[in-house]
């Protein structure tokens, strides 16, 4: 593109007016992968700066006569130069050069465009592609080579582009599943300066893979995203990776940050925080308050504050007003969460002093660019989904209205007059699945086998309280039918509507238990083997270590491999008040735990299992033999089959729960049947540490997931049977031979720990010529209960069981 050089308004640099006049923003956007649809004089498409499914990105002619863009979803906006700045992560000057603008040539301080280095004219990242990798070599205080695309562009030689960097801080950016995305390094420079490059593992045009300075793709990921589990409702947001790491380690809260500092906030994918309670903790300086709370009204590129962007996502906002605390001396500029030295209690005190009330976030009224109104097709309007944080739609948001997704609307069914067919199943499903006011509202909980409303439905407008996901109720169906008739003119039949909702829900299913377990990342510290001794107060032994590991792996196996065989039950013994139930509840979590079940021989018990990971069976010591046998039968079932109330079909659900028994022992044996006792893993507990379990719960399960995925089994191995049987037999109703043999063992066992069968026969006054295999088996069982087993290869000599 040939452009005549001329002065801009500053008298130096690029002539931006010429660039904007001669460069089509819609063409540039399309060339960079934005699929645009023509809508009157405007263009509509999916925003390249954040993740979305419904187009909210618009290109329009502003009052200055040039094309501009604006995204209603993330607030990104500007002209063609801003677009390249945001998309490529380059400076204003580099963006102008990429667009082919010419620089002023008669000012000595500014080189002629012909003398500009290649890096100022071309995209220095062209041909470089990120490559996934599991780990990285960067460590604090150690030198590592790092590729610099800018140096490569300037020298024309990739080998000259490597410089070593010695990071003082290393921050891993990971996705929600814990996979490595990239890094932000901090390197200290002379004069107290620092640099914080974004780094990714990339493939160069010559095929080599290297670690390179490379800007994160927009929208950029949040820092700490792997810690944002689905069940977490409250998040603390701080400025800077260092502050995030410090606060998270000190408080064990879910703390997040973002890359790029205050100027990078508008390039972040905030969607994972949708509907969350967010506590903003800005740095104690003007840029920090502007980025989080007030925005920036600078003329060329106004910035929306983070609070407003989150408000659009239905977040409830509070912020930490650090000035509310009585400090012994004035706080320095830039004071942040990393400057505090506190424990968890001190943090809670600070929050009570400095945390504001919930804020209602109003939209900014200033329109950074005046936009011409969009020409829309005459569609029947439907009210937008009502968010929990109401906003005042003013300024630019009233000028730019999101268009419906054109793809799904092309597939609607119309009559010969061009009107929507009211009774069309295709139309009903299409609106339920795709219309902005309904899309994403209905989902299916594949763990609980329930259709859920996961976002506030548009017919629930009368409730102003915060919406929590809930199962769909009978009353929702007529309200939904009413809404579809009033908003779209569609009239689905009530009975058909239930099936339509069920279809849409199952196409949008989720599994909270799988999401929880797959979202964990183990820190490498072993905890599983000592679950019972460290957290439930059991005396540590080889037996408790085995049971701890097998129990945790079995729970993960049932969660991730539904219906797998697991016919055993952990029994926690301990006095009343030992907090056995509280400990198990804390380990599995409130959402996945239950201590109530109907008659185990009824279909109700099978229905109640759904959505439960752990079921506690209490007071097992008081069970009759019949009740104990019923529990054992229920425990061995791998699949639940039942017909829900008003259901049309029988549901077959591979079981995902396990059972844990609790007992207040009175000294009497409680296992009634010696044969069935093998299904129970009894452990004595004392002083269960619920609070410690709550702190370490995620790491306990993270380790268990790793053990399961590594192929560890969850059933007792042959070499472990003797330890288990000794514990089971100690709780089994006695044999009249037990006392006699116990006395004989005490008297006749050798100091080396051996006992002869002939001594047992003599103690029982059993004539040797009348003894049968039944007698020998009975003797062996009693001795096993007393802690003795046959010596390998022998039929007449017993040895003491170790452990």
What does this entry look like structurally?
There is one protein chain. By secondary structure, this protein is of the alpha/beta class. The protein has 5 domains: 105 residues, Alpha-Beta Complex (DNA Primase, Chain A); 85 residues, no CATH class; 107 residues, no CATH class; 208 residues, Rossmann fold (3-Layer(aba) Sandwich), CATH 3.40.50; 67 residues. Helix content is 30%, strand content 16%. The chain has 25 helices and 31 strands. The strands form 8 sheets. Strands 6, 9, 10, 11, 12 and 13 form a 6-stranded antiparallel sheet that branches. A 5-stranded antiparallel sheet has the order 1-2-3-4-5, covered by helices on one side. Strand 10 and strand 11 form a beta hairpin. Helix 18 crosses helix 21. The longest helix has 20 residues. It starts with 15 loop residues before the first helix and ends with a strand. The relative contact order is 0.06. GO terms for molecular function: DNA binding; DNA-directed RNA polymerase activity; zinc ion binding. It comes from Cohaesibacter gelatinilyticus. This is CHC2 zinc finger.
